[in-house]
Amino acid sequence: MNAPETNSATPYGTLPANATPSVRKPVSLPRLLEMHSRGEKITMLTAYDATFAAVADAAGVECILVGDSLGMVCQGLSSTVGVSLETMRYHVESVMRGLLRAQATAWLIGDLSFGTYHESKEQALRSAAVLMQAGAHMVKLEGGGWTAETVEFLVRRGIPVCAHLGLTPQTVHSLGGYRVQGKSLEAATSLKQHAHELQDAGAALLVLEMVPAALAAELTLELKHCPTIGIGAGKDTAGQVLVLHDMLGLNLGKMPKFVRNFMTGAPGVKEAMQAYVAAVKNGTFPDNAQHAW
Ligand code: KIV
Questions:
Q1: Contact 101, 70 (CB under 8 A)
Q2: Which residues have C-beta within 8 Å of that of residue 177, sequence separation ≥ 6?
Q3: Reported confidence tier of residue 154, pLDDT bands at 50, 70, 90
Q4: Cα gap 162→199, rounded to integer Å
């Protein structure tokens, strides 16, 4: 008699009955914290579609971010401000399907886009629910100060949150451009205060974008429960993130100084991603002399 067909649960849902379950362990928040306490660097890449997400997972990337940078790299917008929640939902769901089909193990983060969490904690909850129901394991939101209350509200309701400080692209118009943040003593002190408030509110990861390497290193040591993920923040953060297209050498504008083109010398996209993972893990990317402030 044939064994009954059972479905296997994965972090993205249920596999078809005839699929072979993955032997790799799914990435989880405790695992990311444990990696950080052991000193193993966390790798994160953006992905916006099923195929690239599956390839990134196969290359060993632990966290896939469906970033609202998709507004610039996929939709051709000049900033992330014009990205809607529906667009984010569409891309999170596409990535989730790719990861499910590939029996992937990556942790999936969805960006809350501009204007979808600013009005009230309740609005943030409704928006986060849309991305979580599309398959995200965690949502990311930008900014410090006023966001701490929102983070606590979401975390208390079982929604893991990744915070984002430094250059926060959704506020590019207030910041006066894509420039390094936290350079003056006053700005660094305020950024540090916001980071601690976000950790206390329950944020489980913190993206630090375009901040001086020394400030990011200091914060990484201080925040014991909230691993920092740097982008243009030097090599001493708990992990690194890059925009997928940038690290593949594709950019419609000027390539930021903190990016390395991992396609150089790689026979294909998967190998470029593997080179990124290896370079982050062994501490050769980023290089503070070349990619940091
Ligand atoms: O939207 C995005 O891709 C991001 C990363 C740059 C961290 O927020």
A1: no
A2: none
A3: very high
A4: 10
Tokens of 208: 């630090």
Residue type, 281: K
Direct distance between the N- and C-terminal alpha carbons of the chain, in angstroms, rounded to an integer:
66
Query: DSSP strand E in the chain: where?
Result: 9-10, 13-14, 42-46, 63-66, 107-111, 138-142, 161-166, 205-209, 228-231, 239-242
3-class SS string, 69-135: CHHHHCCCCCCCCCCCHHHHHHHHHHHHHHHHHCCCCCEEEEECCCCCCCCCHHHHHHHHHHHHHCC
For residue 80, give the ligand 1 atom closest to its CA.
Answer: 1
Nearest protein Cα to ligand 1, atom 5: 67
Residue with tokens 């990696």: 35
Beta bridge partners of 44: 63, 241
Please confirm whether the linkage preceding 16 is cis (ω < 30° from 0): no
Pocket test for ligand 1, best of 117, 205, 243, 255 (most atoms within 8 A of CB): 243
The string of pLDDT tens digits covering residues 70-110 is 999 999 999 999 999 999 999 999 999 999 999 999 999 99
Cα–Cα distance, 273 to 266 (Å, whole number):
9
Measured between alpha carbons, how far is 164 from 99 in angstroms, rounded to an integer? 24
Phi, psi of 112 (to 5 degrees): -80, 125
Instruction: Please tell me the predicted confidence (pLDDT) of residue 18.
Output: 52
Residue indicated by tokens 């396609």: 263
DSSP for residue 206: E
| Beta-bridge mates of residue 142 | 164
In this predicted structure, the answer to whether residue 15 has a pLDDT above a threshold of 70 is no
| Cross-strand partners of 141 | 163
Catalytic residue numbers, as ranges? 209
